[in-house]
Write the structure tokens for this entry.
Amino acid sequence: MQVIGLCRFSYLATGGFRGVQSHALFDRTRLEERFAHFETLTLPSLRAQSDPDFDFVIVTSADLPAWALERLFAAAQSLPSAVIEQHGPGRMMPLMRAVAQRARRDPSAPCLQFRQDDDDAVATDFIARLREAARLASDLCAAHPMVGVDWTSGFAIQCNHLGVSGHAQHKPNLGVAHAVHVLGGIKASIFHYPHHKLSEHVPTLSFPDPPMWLRAHGDFNDSGQTRARVPNTPLAGATLKRFGISPESVAAAFSAL
């Protein structure tokens, strides 16, 4: 079964973000921080998947500065399944629905889709566990046009020149390690509903463990606008290994900002 990951990287949309105004989307300082997260969290966690059989579509803006576009293509080359699409300004949800539909190699066959923010990470067994969840719930998936699959445990993190610190969280429908099974012939996608409302509309499988995501809180993302008032502590090496993350690489990238 095809597995499709969908990611936005500084796409200039008329909706879909709160913390960044469109005029600041391509600010050099902001983009440098986005790349630091993307290159040391998102891409390493995807490259390290125990099941590498998935497609990954990165949607970015047609107006992304040339230096940033070059860097984005260079970074994406480290993930063989990644493709980059550039689009002009528009409404985020309709665009991503269309992207998801085009990414299906056989629209008549069922598929699995997951959304991935460009500053978050998933555990290295995410794709494998996603396939297993769909297999175990095959009767449920066959009976509904769309079924959600959600892992609710992970870590809220911050990255800096020292590496990665964070604290454990349990949040349903957060939008990371969050997927859907879509039947063949159905044009719905994981962007059919806002992630936090998915389980209000479709049956959803919810797994409280194992920890399946790292959600970064920074200066230039929506997550950073609502930081939990919980002390962060350095994450253990074993925890970061579960996500394919090198604390030394994180420290080096954020020291250069």
